[in-house]
Amino acid sequence: MEAHHYYEDLPIASVFLPKALRAPIRVVYQVSRTAAEIAEDSERSAAERHARLADFRAGLDAVANGQLAPVDPLLFGKLAGVAAQYKLPLAPFYDLVAALDQDVDTTRYADRSALLDYCRRAAHPVGQLLLHLFKAATPANVVDSDAICTALHLTNFWQDIAADWKRGRVYLPLTSLARFHVTEAQIGNGTVDNAWRAMMADEVARCRALLLNGAPLALRVPGRAGIVLCGIVHGGLRVLERIEHAGYDVFRSRPTLDAMDWCVVGARALAMWLSRRVGLRATSIEGNA
Fold first, then answer.
1. In the predicted model, is pLDDT for residue 151 greater than 80?
2. How far apart are CA 18 and CA 225, in angstroms?
3. Would you tell me which CATH number, out of the four given (1.10.287.1490, 3.40.1010.10, 1.10.600.10, 3.40.50.300), belongs to the domain 107-289?
4. Where are the beta strands (DSSP E) in the chain?
């Protein structure tokens, strides 16, 4: 998965959020997106991308030390202003850069713990930063946010298995491939057999459980932000349903949401918000509308 896809919905979602927070959310987006684009710049060598990420890290250091950034001073100046005004921690940005540095070289993950460690640095930062902007970064909220962000990151991975293969990447843990007797050759050939379906059913179930574990956060966040988060949760759940409905065939076409799906997501999100209940179980909901 190209990392910037994970951040591209931030400015869109910000339209539905309190006006006062739209500008700082856009700054968080710009900083995150800029770092991601550095890591994904295929026209540069791995060494050059590492060097540019090191420069980016130096920009964060400058913000932390109250100095003018040596690179992209306008961008880091905006970040410095937001960090000062909202007491925004910089640690999530450092985590993100560490994940992107890793993504330049790492194309396989030996086991689930290694993949989740990557997600801790690649996925958790955005959720944590938004919680800080909303002054809602309690320990319980951070735990739920991390669960949602990891689940969404993994869901994107499962959507993009075919595209990632073409880029030489496999995010499925190698232990999962071995456990279900699936080979990388099957990924390359787009083979969807019983072994593949069993493995993907397991991955989808894990993602769904993570999303539902974190979903109560949306009911604790007040106002429109809570409704937006309900929609984010149900959007992720709907994508997982689409993967199921396709028989776990993510090779013929990328599972995405159409207009009808978004109507379903909207209805479920509103029902969740009004009922104050998540309303779904962690088991498969493949047969639902």
1. yes
2. 8
3. 1.10.600.10
4. none
